[in-house]
Amino acid sequence: MHTPAWCTLQSGGSELDAVETGCGQCEIVQCDGSVGFGGSPDEHGETTLDAMIMDGNTMEVGSVADLRHVKNAIGVARKVMQHTKHTLLVGESASLFAVSMGFPYEDLTTQNSLSIYLKWLNQSCQPNYWKNVIPDPSKSCGPYKRAKELNNRKEWSISQRKMNIHNHDTIGMIVIGETGNVAAGTSTNGATHKIQGRVGDSPIAGAGAYADSTVGGAAATGDGDVMMRFLPSYQAVEYMRMGIDPTIACQKVISRIQKYAPEFFGAVICANTTGSYGAACNKIPGFRQFHFMVYTPLLSQPSEQVVDCI
């Protein structure tokens, strides 16, 4: 089995082409329900998409967040890089840009996302992402108002994502070409039942992914609200720049987040320009190993790698 990204490289496409094709294929087949249309409805039942793509030669980035009504988020992110001097476009305005670039405007809701949403409404909107509001968000649906008293308890809540702990909640991809060019990208439909307008780590350069052709690349998956505060992909690349092995670089990133959020759900993948790669994840109940796919010229087919979480 040859992956779309690998086929793109084999047929003479660039590393950026490979990232766009690979993430785009995931958007089409709705990988794990966490990428592309018809998954992870927000608290109003709508699916919105986040994606980014980065060129490790020029350090250019194109990204979109809270993209509505357009299925090919990674494709739109690439157009942001190619046809604007900006890095990040968001919301309905990003959709208008996408339409001007020739992407179809269509409904991202499916029977599946609608049923996830209705089931959630029926269970008093549990779980959700509100705090310090009334009525009590742990017991009832909104609309919410801010509570007079702020609860100052240190709360790095592990955003009740145990329902999505299958293994991944984003596609993150690093492509290193034979001449050492590095590209990276991500695509996701974000956190299920998120508050409207929420943007996670995936479309943020240095958080969701990062590429530097003098060093390598990294990508992150997991609880984006927590992880984006630590710029894990940027940090991993910086560790590799210091000569640290990719596996150790990934582990060091996870350890730094653990100090503040011991219960966070997340993993990081790292690869350097010499062809070494590795990954690390945070060990929590229900998430003890992380699986990722590797394709190199030495392998006749994609190889599934597994790391034990730390």
From TrEMBL:
Pfam families, A to Z: Asparaginase_2
MF terms in GO: N4-(beta-N-acetylglucosaminyl)-L-asparaginase activity; peptidase activity
UniProt binding sites for substrate: R198, V199, G200, D201, T221, G222, D223, G224
Main EC class the enzyme belongs to: hydrolase
EC number: 3.5.1.26
Described function: Cleaves the GlcNAc-Asn bond which joins oligosaccharides to the peptide of asparagine-linked glycoproteins.
Active site: T170
Reaction(s) catalysed by this chain's protein: N(4)-(beta-N-acetyl-D-glucosaminyl)-L-asparagine + H2O = N-acetyl-beta-D-glucosaminylamine + L-aspartate + H(+)
Protein keywords: Autocatalytic cleavage, Hydrolase, Protease
Protein name: N(4)-(Beta-N-acetylglucosaminyl)-L-asparaginase
GO biological process, one term: proteolysis
Family statement drawn from the similarity comment of this UniProt entry: Belongs to the Ntn-hydrolase family.
Gene Ontology CC annotation, any one: lysosome
Keyword Calcium included in the entry's annotation: no
Lineage of origin: Eukaryota, Metazoa, Chordata, Craniata, Vertebrata
Residue numbers marked as site, Cleavage: D169, T170
